[in-house]
């Protein structure tokens, strides 16, 4: 799963061939001629350092804040998470279910609140991650260590293999979705409004919280926590846990990541059956994203949920699993 890129590509949609590689080697992200040295992107280092310092300062403001402000910050965290898990990940990256226009609009807005690259860029990079997991073509290759797979991959230019393999992906489905293209076109202003302005203004206008507390708690702290929870799927869920479905791959089942990432920590299952809309064998258990998608189906806003069958799961466990449950 992805994180924000301060130098992502933007602009109007072009052909599938042009856009499939756009941004993968954007300004400040090209590897050197040999593709070996990791050139530091100092702008990202500075911005992420300032963001995390701001989040640490935000902790000091919690005792001063009104309870409603803390509840609002948590609500924004949940919306942020759904924009990534139910939206960019399960819907647009894997096409594991279908969503009608009102739901796609909501998920696109929630994805802008997440500020982890636009849907097109997030989904394209995630497809590269799945197809070339734990290789140099993986944007956050866990074989390069915990720090790199967690946040370090944002601090260096992308490996040339990420760029080359990414250009070969089929992204025509993303190009054909007007919601994806609209969000991409207006991504910067949507991020300002959804990630920073809306979370800050609501507590100030409705229940009289100070702008200072609102900004640091509902925007900065919430945003920083949501980023790190997402990054744990790239790092911890690729290093710690069991592998009941496929012991030959790195991704693992990690209960703590599951709790923080609202259902995305069943990672050995997900990489074994990436088409499954629940990203887990266990359906609704510890999986708020699945609850949300099922509720949207009940409302008639989502359809065609894809699932791995029980026989398929058991056969895969017997063939490649590590024997754990």
TrEMBL record:
One of its GO terms (molecular function) is iron ion binding. One of its GO terms (cellular component) is endoplasmic reticulum membrane. Residues 7-17 have a biased composition (Basic and acidic residues). Its cofactor is Fe(2+). Residues 71-274 form the Fatty acid desaturase domain. It holds the Pfam family FA_desaturase. Its main location: membrane. Residues 1-33 are annotated as: Disordered. InterPro entries: Acyl-CoA_DS, FA_desaturase_dom, FADS-1_CS. It is a multi-pass membrane protein. It comes from the Eukaryota. PANTHER family: ACYL-COA DESATURASE, STEAROYL-COA DESATURASE 5. The histidine box domains are involved in binding the catalytic metal ions. This is Stearoyl-CoA desaturase 5. The gene is SCD5.
């Amino acid at each position: 799963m992805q994180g924000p890129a301060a130098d992502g590509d933007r602009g109007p949609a072009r052909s599938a061939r042009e856009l499939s590689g756009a941004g993968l080697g954007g300004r400040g992200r090209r590897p050197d001629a040999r593709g070996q040295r990791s050139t530091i992107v100092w702008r990202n280092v500075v911005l992420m350092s300032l963001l995390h310092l701001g989040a640490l300062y935000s902790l000091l403001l919690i005792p001063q804040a009104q309870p409603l402000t803390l509840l609002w910050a948590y609500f924004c965290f949940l919306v942020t998470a759904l924009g990534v898990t139910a939206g960019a990940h399960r819907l647009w990256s894997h096409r594991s279910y279908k969503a009608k226009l009102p739901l796609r609009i909501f998920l696109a807005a929630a994805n802008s609140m997440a500020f982890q690259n636009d849907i097109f860029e997030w989904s394209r990079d995630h497809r590269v991650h799945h197809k070339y997991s734990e290789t140099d073509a993986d944007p956050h290759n866990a074989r390069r260590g915990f720090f790199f797979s967690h946040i370090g991959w944002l601090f260096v230019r992308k490996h040339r293999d990420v760029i080359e393999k990414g250009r070969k992906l089929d992204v025509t489905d993303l190009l054909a979705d007007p919601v994806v293209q609209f969000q991409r076109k207006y991504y910067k202003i949507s991020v300002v409004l959804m990630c920073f302005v809306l979370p800050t203004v609501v507590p100030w206008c409705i229940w009289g919280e100070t702008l200072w507390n609102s900004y640091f708690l509902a925007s900065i702290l919430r945003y920083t926590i949501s980023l790190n929870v997402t990054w744990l799927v790239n790092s911890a869920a690729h290093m710690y846990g069991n592998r009941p479905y496929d012991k030959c791959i790195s991704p693992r089942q990690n209960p703590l990541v599951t709790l923080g990432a609202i259902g995305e920590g069943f990672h050995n299952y997900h990489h074994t059956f990436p088409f499954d809309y629940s990203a887990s064998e266990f359906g609704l258990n510890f999986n708020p994203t699945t609850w949300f998608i099922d509720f949207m189906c009940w409302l008639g806003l989502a359809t065609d949920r894809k699932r791995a069958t029980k026989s398929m799961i058991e056969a895969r466990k017997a063939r490649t699993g590590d024997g754990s449950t």
